[in-house]
Write a structure and sequence with these properties.
CATH architecture: Up-down Bundle
Strand order of the largest sheet: 1-2
Radius of gyration: 19 Å
Strand content: 5-15%
Largest sheet: 2 strands, antiparallel
Number of helices: 8
Shape: globular
Bound molecules: zinc ion
Structural class: mainly alpha
Number of domains: 1
Order of helices and strands: EEHHHHEEEHEHHH
Distance between the termini: 37 Å
């Protein structure tokens, strides 16, 4: 995409735009099209304008590629959407520099799990307005507000996502409930930094709509 911008104007003149790969094929699938809207909204909120971001661009390409149908079932198609949305959310927050420490309590520093041991020790909680995870004790302190638990399985998933490409994750049978708590946590982090609610997030939230 090339464009021309006058210093005194807010709007740019679009000179040309080259379509690398069309995503129109995905638009006929409901969940995939919701995911595309979500990617676009998150990218718009997190990326500064007029600043190329190679890593973010490659993340988008990877998750879009991971959505491509491979001749499988409806469940398989939907499963790829949940995997892609979760992976994208985690890495979008990470690349923006806002991914908090996931192995320790933000309040008291208690180690929640040891990534080296691949074991989950303490339960972990999150809530709006908190920049990271809390241990059970800190999550109950006065003024902490609503809390949600980030399950051990979702924390393991997050750890794996930070190590592997989206197409190489060990879990393959995803559905809307898979890592829904992790997506909620990440959406809250995105919304806190964007200072507004995401319009597309409720469409993906299992608790607000029937699948
Ligand atoms: Zn604590």
């Amino acid at each position: 995409m090339t464009y021309f911008q006058r210093e005194t104007r807010e709007l740019v003149n679009l000179d040309s735009c080259e379509l690398i790969r069309s995503q129109f094929g995905l638009a006929s699938d409901y969940w995939a099209s919701v995911a595309l809207d979500y990617f676009a909204e998150v990218a718009e909120q997190l990326l500064p304008s007029a600043e190329p971001n190679e890593k973010f661009f490659r993340l988008l390409l990877a998750v879009l590629e991971s959505l491509r149908p491979e001749g499988d079932s409806e469940a398989g198609k939907a499963g790829r959407v949940w995997r892609a949305v979760t992976y994208f959310s985690l890495w979008a927050v990470r690349l923006s520099g806002w991914l908090p420490e996931l192995h320790a309590c933000l309040g008291c520093g208690t180690v929640l799990d040891d990534p080296e041991m691949e074991s989950i020790g303490e339960r972990a909680f999150f809530g709006r307005g908190r920049a990271g995870l809390s241990c059970e004790h800190c999550s109950r302190l006065p003024g902490s507000g609503s809390r949600w638990e980030l399950s051990a399985a979702s924390r393991m998933t997050a750890a794996e996502m930070l190590q592997r490409p989206v197409a190489q994750l060990s879990r393959t049978n995803w559905d809307q409930a898979t890592a829904a708590d992790l997506r909620r946590f990440l959406v809250q982090q995105i919304e806190a930094h964007a200072e507004r609610r995401l319009v597309t997030a409720p469409l993906l939230d299992a608790s607000t709509i029937a699948p």
